[in-house]
Specification:
Layout lengths: L2 H26 L14 H4 L22 H14 L4 E5 L1 H4 L3 H8 L4 E5 L5 H8 L13 E5 L10 H18 L4 E5 L9 H11 L8 E4 L25 H20 L2
Parallel strand pairs: 1-2, 1-3, 3-4, 4-5
Helix pairs in contact: 7-8
Amino acid sequence: MHTTLKNTLLTTKKWLALAGAAVMVANLAPTRVLAQAPQPKGSTADKPMVFPNPAKDPTKPAVGGVKWFWATHARNFERRKAGNIDLCFLGDSITQGWPGDLFGKYFGGLNGVNFGCGGDKIQNLLMRLEGDDGELKGTSPKVIVLLIGINNMGDNTPEEVAYGINYMIEYLGKQCPKSKVLLLAILPTKGGDNDKIKSVNKLTAKFDNRKNVRFLDMGPKFLGPDGKAEASLFSDNVHLSRKGYEVWHDTMNRLLTQMMAAP
C-alpha cells in the first residue's frame, strides 16, 4: 500500500476512534437541554458587568457543586409537572432546610412548593430554571419567594452579588411574567462577614419597585440585643433552627399575604 494512503487511513481510524469515545462519554453525562437565557431589559442589560473568570459569573448557568444537585432538580421538575403551584420558594440550603411540617402548616394551603437546593449559588439556581426541564418552565406562580446569594459571597464583591440577584429577578420576570417576586435580604450569620452581607442588601433593596418586586429585610429579627446573630435561631453559623424558620414565617407573613391576594 502506498505510504501516503496508509498514513491517511490510519489518521482517519484514529479520529473515528476518538469521536466514538467522545460519544460514549457524552452518553454517560446527565441529559441537559439548555436554552439561551433571554436577555432581560433593565439595568443588567443596559450596564453589563464583565467577569474575567466565567466560573464566578453569577449570570451564567452552571451545575451546582454538590452531589445532590441533579436529584434535587429532578424532584422539583417532577413537582412542577404536577402543576397547581401558586407559591414557590427559590434558594439554597437555607430555603431547602424548611422543616416539612412547618412548611406544610404555613404554606401548604397556598399551594406552596419549596424549590431550594443546598449549595446553590445564583448561577446554579439559573441552571435549574434553564431549558425545557426548567423547574418553573410554563408556570407563573402568584408569588416567588427568592433568597439567594450567600454562597456567592466568597467569590464575588457585593456589587457582583447584587448584579447577579438583579439578573435573576429580571430572568424570572421573563420566564414567569405573571408572578410577583418577594426578594428576601440575605440573612445575617454567626460566623460570616455580616458587613459584606449588609452591603449586598443595601444594593438589592433598590430592586423593590412596589409593584411586581418587593424587598424584605428580615435581618433585624435574627439579631440579639447585642446586634449579633441570635444563637437560638441558628442550627450552625448559617442555617436556621426550627425557631428560626418560625421567625421567618412570622416576619414575612404580612407582606406575603398581601402579595398573594393582590391581582
